[in-house]
Structure formats: C-alpha cells, structure tokens
Amino acid sequence: MRREGSCRRPSFTLVSSLRSSIPIHLLNSTALQMLFDTHTNLMWYPDHLSDEFVEFAWEAKRAKMKLSPDVYFAGSGTQQANAFDSRPELLLPATAEADKVIVFGIKAPFCGINADQELIAKFVKEHSDRFIGWCSVDPNDADCVQQLEYYVNGLGLRGLKCSPIYQNWNPQDPKHLPLFKKAESLGIPVNIHQGTSFVRTGPLKYANPILLEDIAVACPDLRIVIAHMGHPWEAECVVLIRKHPNLYTNISALHYRPLRHYQAFMTAIEYGVEHKLIFGSDFPSATPAQVIAGQHKVNDVVRGTHFPRVSEEVIHNIIYENWKQFLPEYA
User: Fold this and answer.
1) How far apart are CA 273 and CA 157, in angstroms?
2) 246/316 Cα distance (integer angstroms)
C-alpha cells in the first residue's frame, strides 16, 4: 500500500503532453482539442460536509489509491481535507488546462452534504471565462421546483445536479416528475449520480440506472447525463442510454478500477453508444489530467491477450468530442 506521505500532487502539464500524443489524423482542427470537464465539485469540510461523510470518503479514496496512481491527493496534514475538499484555491489550478468546466455542489443533507448554491453562483461569476455553474435542489423539498426556477433565472446557474442515493428519493415515484418537467421546460441539462456510493445511509435500492427510465419517458426532451456510467451497473446504464436519444453518461470515477473500466467501455462499444460517453473528472476525486491518463491505460488490463482493444479514436472522442452532442450550446 502506498504511504500517505509518498503521494504526489498531480502534474497539470500532463494534459498538454497527452494532447501532443494524439494521432495527427484526429487533430484536424483546433476545435477537436477543446477540453470540457463536465463534472467538478465545489464544497469542503466542515462548511458543507459532515464528519461521517468525510470519514467514508477518505476510506473510499484510500481504496482507489491502492489501485491507481491517477487519484487526486491534496497532501494535507488532516484526513478531512484529503477526503473530498474542493475549495476554489484547489479547483482552479487542478482544472487550469480545461477550456470549460462545469461545477456544482449537491444539496443532500440526508447523507451529510449541503453545498452552498449562492457560493457556486458567486464563484462562476468571478471565473466566467471558464466555469459554468449548475445548481442542486433536493427533490424531497416541497418547494424544489421554485428553488430550481430561482437558481436558474435568479442566479444564472445553467444545469441541475441531483442523486437518489445521496438525497434518498425514488426516481420511479411520479411525485418527482414536476421537478424534471420544469428542468425540461427551462431547457437545462441534468446530471444524476445514479450508481453506488460509499455513504453508509445511501439507499442502493434507488441507485440502479434503469430506475431513471420513467423520467426519460415522461421528459423526452430533457438532457440527462448519468454520472460515472452508473457504476457498478455500467451495462444497465449502456442499454438505457441506447434507448433514449437525450440520455448520456460520463466516464468520471471509472479509471480507478481497471477491469470495470475496460468492461464498461467495451460494453458501450458493443452496443454502439461509445459516442454518448462524455468526459468529466469528478474533482476532487481526480484532476482532468489524471482522468485523461487513466483513459489511455484502459487497455492495460488486457495487454498480452487476444481481447479486443478500445481504439485511440474512441478515447480521443470521449475526451474532446462527445460532449458537443450533449452540450451543443458551448460547442
């Protein structure tokens, strides 16, 4: 096991070096090289995260660090700061080589997270050259629709972040449909963490990506990205996004588990939806540079075998291209 003191801060110049290694036929325009990180967080302990949350977050991060060097480690002397702290002074340099960055903080007091939506709006106004703010509302709140309208029309936030496992709500319960119909009418996209988590209280019974289908059917024009390919239900995520034109998934938090990473990508390729996989870092889980490095290692687990490989073109498109279908307003 790596000792905590031996962990190094990531090299943010890695993005540039990896760009230069892309085959020349994939770089036929400068637009192809636009790096858009569609998944970062802005929240920290103790202002927004509970003691129990950071305890379990730190244990989860330590497990990832055993499997991959491409995990963000803040290098702080305190366990709480190394767990899931993403302060402005950390987020800005970590994403310095990204051209555009979506940032949010989930409102999930059920599991010990209560990010400040006004703070996120203020941050993106101060860094509007690169950052795009999304809001979070708790679907259990009676006034969640009104909150969403305020955050979008009042604060200028441009998307919605939510999660059944973090917020304890059933995505098949029709009482939650008005929130997503409002997002659809506002024309904003939604990021849903629909998969497992390390939080002790989070209900796994609400976490399978298949449970999102009722929302997708009821809101056909709503753009939804499922975070982390719905791990460990990547196959369910793949068959769901194949059926629904406006459903996508991001590849953040996958590369730490090499076998699952490879299997998830090959499943997407076999079902013909590799073009619906988009880039995100989930900082402070990893930096964009670390996630890019991880994508280029996806085939390492099958080296020396006759198993099929994920092509460089597929990897390149995930990093630099596929976001344009989901977020054409920024292309």
Assistant:
1) 29
2) 22
b or e along 177-209 (b: 16 or more beta carbons within 10 Å of the residue's beta carbon)? bebbbbbbeeebbbbbbbbbbebeebbeebbbb
Phi/psi of residue 59, each to 5°?
Answer: -65, -40
pLDDT digits over 164-201, tens only?
A: 999 999 999 999 999 999 999 999 999 999 999 999 99
CA distance 254 to 261: 5
What is 33-330's CATH topology?
Answer: TIM Barrel (3.20.20)
How far is the C-alpha of 225 from the C-alpha of 209, rounded, in Å? 11
Q: Is the pLDDT of residue 1 over 60?
A: no
| Whole-number Å distance between alpha carbons of 281 and 279 | 7
**DSSP states of 4-36 as a string?**
GGG-----TTHHHHHHHTS-GGG-SSGGGG--E
Please choose, from the candidates 115, 112, 171, the residue with its C-alpha nearest in 3D space to the C-alpha of residue 139.
Answer: 171
Q: How large a percentage of the chain has pLDDT more than 70?
A: 90
Helix (H, G, I), strand (E, B) or coil at 122: helix
30-64 pLDDT, tens per residue?
445 899 999 999 999 999 999 999 999 999 999 99
Token code pair at residue 237:
């995520």
Q: Where are the alpha helices (DSSP H) in 21-136?
A: 51-67, 79-84, 88-94, 117-126
How far apart are alpha carbons 286 and 253 in whole angstroms? 8
DSSP letters, 178-231, are HHHHHHHHHT--EEE--S--S-TT--GGG--GGGGHHHHHH-TT--EEEGGGGT
DSSP, residue by residue, 166-182:
HHT--TT-GGGHHHHHH
The number of residues in the chain equals 331
